[in-house]
Amino acid sequence: VQLQASGGGLVQAGGSLRLSCKGTGINFSISTLDWYRQAPGAQREFVARSSSGGDRADYADAVKGRFTVSRDNVRRTLYLQMDSLSAEDTAVYYCHINYRSADFWGPGTLVTVSS
After folding, report:
1. pLDDT reported for residue 97
2. Three-class SS string for 23-83?
3. pLDDT digits 0-9 by tens, 67-88
């Protein structure tokens, strides 16, 4: 199982970024996939979840109304559209899957929001 996140970078407060996570070695289309993030000095926290069919999405309260999770099962890619970014969104963002009772994490992509 491999999860490869990309799309992070430096953005000004109020700006937008779109993260991508490509999954291989899994049955992508039937898998629930998540985004987590870890800010400096903080614990890793849940951000968003996409159900296998993409028909259900769940969000942490901190990002509701600003972030949108989506997926393209043909491209085996999970997305996170992040709008109205603030300095509090600065973190390393990880994609995650619990697959066959094991947790798999991608290496993460750094998002830095300057205020």
Report:
1. 93
2. EECCCHHHCCEEEEEECCCCCCEEEEEECCCCCCEEECCCCCCCEEEEEECCCCEEEEEEC
3. 999 999 999 999 999 999 999 9
